Each structure stands twice: as structure tokens, then as C-alpha cells.
UniProtKB/TrEMBL annotation:
It comes from the Eukaryota. This is Uncharacterized protein. It comes from Arundo donax.
């Protein structure tokens, strides 16, 4: 369960990072 949550969080951050770079 913890691993799945961590993987989900990393995926969310990766998505946010891509959007962040697109804004710049």
C-alpha cells in the first residue's frame, strides 16, 4: 500500500513538473 501511494505521488509530481516547465 505504501509503495503504491509513493508511486502515485511521484507520478503526480512528474506531471506537475512537466506542466511547470511548459508554463516557462
Amino acid at each position: 500500500m505504501g509503495y503504491n501511494l509513493m508511486r502515485k505521488t511521484i507520478g503526480f509530481h512528474d506531471r506537475y513538473h512537466i506542466i511547470f516547465w511548459h508554463c516557462i
